[in-house]
Design goal:
Helix content: 55-70%
Number of helices: 5
Largest sheet: 2 strands, antiparallel
Oligomer: single chain
Radius of gyration: 18 Å
Strand content: 5-15%
Number of strands: 2
Order of helices and strands: EEHHHHH
Number of domains: 1
Shape: elongated
Length: about 150
């Protein structure tokens, strides 16, 4: 929900948090599964073949964008979103250092930047109309049970 506050004829759009998810624990559990998948894919010796040039880099962006976007819907306040962004950036850095400790994965500063870019993209998406995607899905799911 977007509210508009006016001050001296200036319009400021602010995201409100009136739309608390009814299935928040469910969405959180799924999100934790996504985190587990990113950790697994970051540390596994057998990477999936995307068939695309720079496919792994695109995968980094998509994975971290998705994590940020998903959790920004579960925790919609601005403070929570910025904390999540910092956490996911730190997670990307930590996983990169963990990769450097393995014999089968490499350490790349560029991956850290790409992960952070994905987090930023997900954060930006969380301030668009897409920010209520889980709430809309939840409405559809709960409509069938009522």
């Amino acid at each position: 929900m977007v509210t508009t506050q006016t001050n001296s004829n200036l319009s400021i759009n602010a995201v409100t948090t009136n739309m608390r998810l009814k299935l928040q624990k469910f969405w959180l559990t799924i999100g934790l599964g996504f985190i587990g998948l990113v950790v697994f894919l970051s540390l596994t010796p057998d990477l999936p073949d995307t068939g695309l040039q720079h496919g792994m880099k695109i995968g980094h962006i998509l994975a971290y964008c998705w994590l940020m976007f998903w959790f920004a819907q579960v925790y919609p306040t601005a403070t929570a979103r910025y904390r999540l962004a910092a956490t996911f950036c730190a997670m990307g850095i930590a996983l990169e250092y963990m990769q450097s400790m393995s014999a089968y994965r490499g350490f790349e500063y560029s991956d850290m930047l790409i992960n952070a870019f994905g987090v930023g993209l997900g954060l930006l998406l969380s301030y668009t109309r897409l920010q209520h995607l889980l709430a809309r899905l939840e409405t559809l799911l709960l409509r069938g049970t009522a």
